[in-house]
Amino acid sequence: MGGFGPVARPDAPLARRNPVAKLAAALVFSIVLIATLDPVAPAIAIAVELAVLPLFGVHPRVLLRRAWPLLLSAAGIVVTLVLFAADRSGRVLVEAGPVVVTSGVLLTALGLVLRVFAVALPGVIVFATTDPTDLADALVQNAKAPARFAIGALAAFRLVPLLGHEWQMIAMARRARGVDAGRNPVARLRLFASTGFALLVGAIRRGTRLAVAMDARGFDAGTPRTVARRQRFGPADAALVAGATALALAAITASVLLGTFRPLIS
Fold first, then answer.
1. Residue ranges per domain, the chain?
2. At what angle do helices 132-141 and 19-33 cross, to 10 degrees?
3. Cα 65 vs. chain centroid, distance in angstroms?
4. Rounded to whole angstroms, how far apart are CA atoms 3 and 154?
5. Per-residue confidence in pLDDT tens, the chain, 266 aa
6. 21 in helix, strand or coil?
7. What angle do CA 208, 213, 216 make, to 5 degrees?
């Protein structure tokens, strides 16, 4: 079972930064890229993210293992636009009955796919280099988040790996009772939906028990809480946030300039 804890080298320069600083840098870097549909800005952003990956101490193989669901999202975006895009401008590349693939459709799909990767990869890198307990401590100390929210988020984050284990247990229990879809795709889909519903019910029950247990231990008390581990926000952490902001603005500026000079170049 793979967890969601840090998998980076702890001695990497940017992996040692404050969790709130890393989270703020990722949010700033991602939110700025949402403002453009041009593929240039997210392409530059992805190049920057891959370039600073060694500074976070994350191996590319680890990043690929954690970010592979993005590939499914990219495939879904391309298929959806190819089938249902309203704008079919540009040169026709493929025409097969009702399916018409144009250069405009592919350019739009490329921009959306690159933007999905550019927005999601910073979050993947942050959580791959941050201990959940350190993140909760930093949210309370540096971001002044409510302790109940931070500790509740930490508890939920710790329970996420159990979902995969429970899915396997439910599937094995049903197989032991003779419930198997075989090669029937409809039966497979029905079994998948019922397993997901059983997993959802179990997760809600566990969350309810956890909430009651936390309230019973005083997590909902209004008294100030003490801090066991100090999370300091220093000049290097502020420089990380400022650098992420500058890089995101530089990517947007390059996209705007390229869009301005593109008619002159063509």
1. 1-142+235-266, 145-230
2. 90
3. 13
4. 14
5. 445 556 777 788 888 889 999 999 998 888 877 777 778 888 888 898 888 888 888 888 888 888 888 888 888 888 887 777 777 777 777 777 677 778 778 888 888 888 888 888 888 888 888 888 888 889 888 888 888 788 888 887 788 778 888 888 988 888 888 877 777 888 888 888 888 899 999 888 888 888 888 888 777 666 777 777 888 899 999 999 999 999 888 888 887 777 654 443 34
6. helix
7. 125
CA atoms within 13 A on the CB side of 16: 7
Q: How many helices (H) and strands (E) are present in the chain, helices listed first?
A: 10, 2
Distance between CA atoms of 27 and 30, rounded to whole angstroms? Answer: 5
Burial label, 57 (beta-carbon count in 10 A; 0-12, 13-18, 19+) = buried
Q: What is the SS3 assignment for 114-147?
A: HHHHHHHHHHHHHHHCCCHHHHHHHHHHCCCCCH
The structure's pTM equals 0.76
What distances in angstroms separate CA 182 from CA 29, 190, 205, 222, one per listed residue? 46, 12, 30, 55
By three-state DSSP, how is residue 197 classified? helix
